[in-house]
Write a sequence for this structure.
């Protein structure tokens, strides 16, 4: 059990580090297939972070509702701090819609995981 806890927290920490590193890049080379596709990137990245946050929080939170709320709050706060961080990076900007996509992605991932775990 202790090893699972360490692995879950390590995975979340590494993923947060990856997002921080990507946010520190001046610009990421991605083809633009449709307008606002960056929102899909934010949603997808934080969908995964939501899953990892849930797995980490389940070791310390027992209530399913609190587990979801703690996980979503963590991802939302990290997303807000990431947007603030991007405001200092040359060629990047902070966007509240990116933060909303982050929070929505994390919430969707946690909701899906909660529904799948019932079966």
């Amino acid at each position: 059990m202790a090893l699972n806890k360490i692995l879950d927290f390590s995975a979340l920490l590494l993923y947060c580090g990856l997002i921080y590193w990507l946010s520190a890049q001046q610009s990421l080379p991605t083809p633009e297939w449709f307008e606002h596709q960056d929102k899909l990137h934010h949603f997808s990245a934080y969908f995964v972070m939501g899953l990892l946050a849930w797995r980490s929080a389940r070791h310390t939170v027992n209530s399913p509702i609190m587990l979801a709320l703690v996980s979503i709050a963590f991802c939302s706060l990290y997303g807000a701090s990431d947007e603030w961080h991007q405001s200092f990076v040359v060629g990047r900007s902070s966007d509240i819609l990116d933060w909303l996509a982050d929070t929505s992605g994390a919430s969707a991932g946690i909701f899906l995981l909660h529904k799948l775990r019932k079966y």
The mean pLDDT is 91. Residues 48 and 104 are 12 Å apart (CA to CA). The chain has four helices and no strands.
